[in-house]
Amino acid sequence: MGIDPTQQQAIFDPFIQASRSITREYGGTGLGLAISRQLVQMSGGEMKVESRPGFGSRFSFTIKLQTAPEEVPSATGPLRRSPSLAGLRVLVAEDNPINQKVLLQMLERQGCLVTIVSNGRTAVSVSAHQDFDVLLMDIQMPELDGVSATKEIRLREQKSAQHLPIIALTANAMAGERERCTRAGMDDYLTKPLQTKLLYEALRRLTVVAGEDEPAQQNNPPSGFVGFQWEELLNRCGDDAELAMELLGMFHDQWQDTYTQLQASINEQDPTTLEEIAHKLKGSAATLTASEMALYAEALQQMGQHAELENAQQTLDKLAQSYEQLKLEIARQTADIPV
């Protein structure tokens, strides 16, 4: 529809739209042009835009290419998969969209067949009517939490000889959480943010080499305190830089609504909502390696859980400052990342 001249260069920056109304009407994260320009620049070219508000836009680019030899080995090939996990039927119960996307990438990279549901109630229903090899169960979900959903599945299985392996996924690493999951009937336990290697090892233990006496492995967070780690995020996304940038864009798009809800829960002295929203934010931030934001979100979650909101506003202010610092750090670390 045309872009104002003052906006024409800014729209090539990550997470930028010419108008906020465009996002609401047409969707998108503001990454398409940034990715396109980087691809063109990688080929030694240049991207241009000609645009008049009310008339339309024309994007063009030039690149330098070499003539290919007559026979070029194909760069495409079969997806690298672990033979032991290929074809594994995995049900994922997770309500956080960002975590859903990361898990889908982790699992499909190994050739797993993945079904995703957003709450425990649906997990109970779907697992009753479809066959799965394993269930990845988030602990805190709407309608029915992971522990309660597991208990219902185990109760149902008492009438048959079936046993669906269930792996708990939780951002709560408090003492006693593992025991609580085990008592509910869960077979394994992983803490968020998930480490790819430990997830695959847990899947193999329960579905491929089930019964072997292997020591349980803890999914401990990395030592040190870092606000953002691009390389770690890229690893979780299977070295897919475009997916990593898309996840960061989703997080960016969700931030304002999340902040507004947190602020409203504090203003209205609503600890239940504060705990719920902070928990979701903590999970997303931890998955994206935004460690500082995850810590502040966890602090807000604990305040909500214990209905102690005296310091909630101060913590929310620090969370907002951390978000602004995160944006700068993301821009710094991804400035030269080809996607």
What is the compact description of this entry?
The protein is an alpha/beta fold. It is 47% helix and 11% strand. It has helices at residues 20-26, 32-42, 97-108, 120-129, 146-157, 177-184, 196-207, 230-236, 241-267, 271-287, 291-305, 312-333, and strands at 46-52, 56-62, 89-93, 113-117, 134-138, 166-170, 188-191.
Structure description:
- The protein has helices spanning 20-26, 32-42, 97-108, 120-129, 146-157, 177-184, 196-207, 230-236, 241-267, 271-287, 291-305, 312-333; strands at residues 46-52, 56-62, 89-93, 113-117, 134-138, 166-170, 188-191.
- It is α/β, with parallel strands linked by helices and 339 residues long.
- It has three domains: 5-62, Heat Shock Protein 90 (2-Layer Sandwich); 89-207, Rossmann fold (3-Layer(aba) Sandwich), CATH 3.40.50; 230-333, Four Helix Bundle (Hemerythrin (Met), subunit A) (Up-down Bundle), CATH 1.20.120.
- The strands form two sheets. A five-stranded parallel β-sheet has the order 4-3-5-6-7, with helices on both faces. Strands 1-2 form a two-stranded antiparallel sheet.
- It is globular, with a radius of gyration of 23 Å.
- The model is unreliable at 20-25, 72-83 and 209-226 (pLDDT under 50).
Blueprint (SSEs and pairs):
Elements: H1 20-26, H2 32-42, E1 46-52, E2 56-62, E3 89-93, H3 97-108, E4 113-117, H4 120-129, E5 134-138, H5 146-157, E6 166-170, H6 177-184, E7 188-191, H7 196-207, H8 230-236, H9 241-267, H10 271-287, H11 291-305, H12 312-333
